[in-house]
């Protein structure tokens, strides 16, 4: 291998032998290994390997939030037909951060916000996912936001799910967001009213275990911020015996 030098006379190229001793890794080797790992995770059935939960009510129970008590009423910071300056759809970290920074700007207060989420609390995917051993694969000092503002030091380099969920709740508490959150509720549609220069959002309130309390309301807002995610949707494998699995 030839050598190149920069304007200081420093060698810019080293032989692969110098970098990896007797074992030389090439770009081709890396790609082959990547393809091998990719094949392990692909399934020729595609999405057919999962049960389509939208076509049957048989598995509707998997959508029920185990962290919410049956009969918990929906908090309604803005009444049907009411107005909020800013509507935030999603109470995960994206929604929490939008709300926090809007308040930090000094232009808005918590009372100017309405946060809508089908969960029973803050955290997004960290609210729904609670399986044993759940850990974030990104260093907590990088992943968790507002650590300086919250004067918080993560307990572990890679935080467990329960710590992340509790931290999300603590941010919401610090910025007064809980009173402005409308949980167990989903935004069904957003329509721009060009005449009134505002958004009209149809929201479905769906308290757990109380279908007689379900209702749709409409909320108006000057701004709408969408922060929906994908990692809270349940997936059931289409396997024999799934109906009997407990």
Describe this protein's structure.
The protein is α/β, with parallel strands linked by helices and 246 residues long. Helix content is 24%, strand content 17%. Strands 3-2-1-6-5-4 form a six-stranded mixed β-sheet. Strand 1, helix 3 (93-104) and strand 2 form a beta-alpha-beta unit.
List SSEs in N-to-C order: HHEHEHHHHEEEE
Taking all Cα atoms into account, the compactness measure Rg is 24 Å
The helix content, as a percent range, equals 10-25%
How big a fraction of the residues is strand? 15-25%
Main sheet: strands, sense, barrel? 6 strands, mixed
By DSSP, the count of extended strands is 6
How would the global form be characterised? globular
Number of helices: 7
Mean pLDDT: 87
Oligomer: single chain
Which strand order spans the largest sheet, edge to edge or round the barrel? 3-2-1-6-5-4
Task: Write a compact overview of the structure shown.
The chain is an alpha/beta fold and 246 residues long.
Question: What topology does this entry show?
Answer:
Layout: H1 16-20, H2 27-41, E1 83-89, H3 93-104, E2 113-116, H4 125-128, H5 140-143, H6 147-150, H7 161-174, E3 181-182, E4 185-193, E5 198-205, E6 215-226
Parallel strand pairs: 1-2, 1-6, 2-3
Antiparallel strand pairs: 4-5, 5-6
Highlighted features:
single chain; 246 residues; alpha/beta; six-stranded mixed beta sheet; 7 helices; 6 strands; 24% helix; globular
């Amino acid at each position: 291998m030839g050598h190149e030098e920069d304007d200081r006379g420093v060698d810019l190229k080293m032989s692969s032998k110098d970098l990896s001793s007797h074992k030389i890794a090439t770009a081709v080797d890396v790609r082959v290994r990547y393809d091998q790992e990719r094949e392990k995770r692909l399934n020729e059935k595609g999405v057919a390997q999962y049960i389509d939960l939208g076509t049957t009510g048989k598995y509707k129970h998997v959508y029920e939030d185990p962290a919410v008590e049956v009969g918990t009423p929906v908090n309604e910071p803005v009444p049907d037909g009411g107005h909020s300056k800013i509507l935030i759809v999603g109470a995960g970290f994206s929604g929490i951060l939008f709300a926090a920074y809007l308040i930090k700007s000094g232009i808005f207060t918590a009372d100017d916000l309405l946060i809508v989420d089908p969960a029973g609390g803050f955290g997004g995917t960290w609210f729904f996912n609670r399986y044993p051993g759940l850990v974030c694969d990104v260093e907590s000092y990088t992943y968790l936001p507002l650590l300086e503002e919250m004067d918080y030091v993560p307990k572990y380099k890679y935080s467990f799910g329960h710590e992340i969920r509790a931290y999300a709740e603590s941010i919401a508490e610090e910025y007064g967001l809980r009173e402005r959150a409308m949980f167990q509720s989903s935004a069904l549609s957003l329509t721009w009213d060009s005449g009134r220069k505002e958004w009209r959002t149809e929201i479905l309130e769906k308290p757990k275990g109380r279908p007689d309390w379900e209702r749709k309301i409409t909320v108006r807002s000057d701004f709408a911020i969408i922060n929906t995610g994908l990692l809270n949707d349940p997936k059931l494998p289409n396997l024999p015996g799934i109906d009997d699995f407990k």
